[in-house]
Amino acid sequence: MSAWSGKLRRICKGFEFNDTETMATVGTVTSVEFPTYLATRGRLIDDAVEAALPPAEQPPQIIHQAMRYSVLGGGKRLRPLLVVASAEACGGNPRAVLPVACAVELIHTYSLIHDDLPAMDNSDTRRGRPTCHIAYGEAIAVLAGDALHALAFDLIARASPASDSPRLLAVSQDIAQSIGTAGMVGGQVLDLLGEGRIFPGGANSPPPAPLAELVPEIHLRKTAALIGACVRAGALLAGADVSTLHALSAYGERLGLAFQIIDDILDVVGDDRVLGKRAGSDAAKATYPAAFGVARSREMAAQLTAQAVEAVAPLGERGVILQELARSLLARER
Amino acid sequence: MSAWSGKLRRICKGFEFNDTETMATVGTVTSVEFPTYLATRGRLIDDAVEAALPPAEQPPQIIHQAMRYSVLGGGKRLRPLLVVASAEACGGNPRAVLPVACAVELIHTYSLIHDDLPAMDNSDTRRGRPTCHIAYGEAIAVLAGDALHALAFDLIARASPASDSPRLLAVSQDIAQSIGTAGMVGGQVLDLLGEGRIFPGGANSPPPAPLAELVPEIHLRKTAALIGACVRAGALLAGADVSTLHALSAYGERLGLAFQIIDDILDVVGDDRVLGKRAGSDAAKATYPAAFGVARSREMAAQLTAQAVEAVAPLGERGVILQELARSLLARER
Fold this sequence. Notes:
The structure is a homodimer. By secondary structure, chain A is mostly helical. Helices cover 66% and strands 1% of the residues of chain A. The first copy, chain A, has helices at residues 3-13, 34-52, 61-71, 78-89, 98-116, 132-136, 138-157, 165-178, 184-194, 211-237, 242-269, 272-279, 288-292, 294-311, 320-331; strands at 125-126, 129-130. Chain A has a two-stranded antiparallel sheet. In chain A, strand 1 and strand 2 form a beta hairpin. In chain A, helix 5 packs antiparallel against helix 7 (138-157) and helix 10 crosses helix 11 (242-269). The longest helix of chain A is centred in the last third of the chain and has 28 residues, at 242-269. Chains A and B meet through helix 1, helix 3, helix 6, helix 7 and helix 8 of A and helix 1, helix 3, helix 6, helix 7 and helix 8 of B.
């Protein structure tokens, strides 16, 4: 039981994260070009995510290997980037929010691992490699997702002393709500219901809505809720006032929805045969192109992006990186 | 996005939990007999857990039905009781720690749902009813576990303003660590490894240790870590000093280990044919009776219970309920 001595001292003392480093090495949000910003913050985030994961050689090794395999196997790091960029747009230090930035990436990865499971989307590959349950077995995949989920809330509580504790708790709660049944998990349930993939034994749920109603609801919950929470987290930790929080919250949810629409479009235009099959079928997957067609989906993504850009206009110079980020995500369409 | 207005106001305002009610209706920890204490706190906890869950009729209904089915389907409520009893032993108000008490019960239930999955223990029944994946399908069971996990951290952040935020964050972190790979998930991985149930593809983990080494390690992580965190949570939220935290931490981990040993014993003595088969087999499940035999396991549980009782002796009168609780758990053996 003596291992608890150090732990209890730490609990009583407070938090260890050091955010006293200056911004000299990374530049401020108003002084760098967007590509430089992306590159420097990307490195900060990648290093922090790698350091946040338990070493592969720490027992029981297999679970740590599976967690690292899934988290470090690529990905755009959009969610942690939004935490960092939002904090900087509100005058915060990017290093101070890195634990929370890592946390949202771990949560995103946990959701992908569980979504890929045979009982869910039954996907064998992700990012060009075998999915976690193919590489490590289904039991370890379930547990790796669970462990990343827990580690995320461990990390949130470790964030900088520069962020006061009530705000950090508000961030923890906001993120928790964004991934519960009102958010990410609820979106996945609607997705499964929409595709008729729920086990018939539990079938006293109402029949799924028409695709044009169902799809926006799924995407708002499954993708936009957590992305909105990421943007608010950066703002809250940087001490933003209520009107700035409102602006950034609107930015985050519109950006999140646009991001998912573009993802859907890229999925279908990447394979014309699939597009042909899906566009004419009511039993299609719950995507924007299936519900609205590719051309209308493109318009909707562009409109949401314009709204996101407009939402952060009141931030002036400090909001420019967030605006560039929104435009760059839309440009993925081409 | 107008739904966010109220949410953002709440985030900025603080927390809503009301702990100004007096203790008149439940009595203080030093004024009531143990059976009365169990009954009154049991009701407080049951009511709070029921209220913490989303209503079954809230869409998407199936996930809320599955969560309620698993959480409200019985269970000893040991973990929330330990949060409450530990807080009271340190002079805290039981109502003030109810959100955290509910959180640990939701976490415990999530772990049972995931442990029961076909890829893990593949259990069809629990507490005399079909397991969650039998009743609602495997996809909903995975998601119900995930949603309870997220709701737990939402609840922790909602705890009383009487508990200061740095301590609440410490509790959130301690609980998160107790259920990660150093705790509950790590224990489940060791359990699977010990029974050779890990997918061979991930087989560069070392061979499992002898049962007599492996079993205590599994139980410390899988059961005692979270139980220890429950006891510390109550103490931390009640403002306990470091020496009291040490005493309660020792109490919690010894109690947690004793509890699991007794569970193992009850499992085998409840079915003599099973006992006969297991006692003679090296390929047995990773339990105390399989590793040490029933008689030696009983001695170990009694010894750990005595140590738990001894650990809280310095609390005097205030520690008596915790001592009674430890003794009553041991008495389950008969």
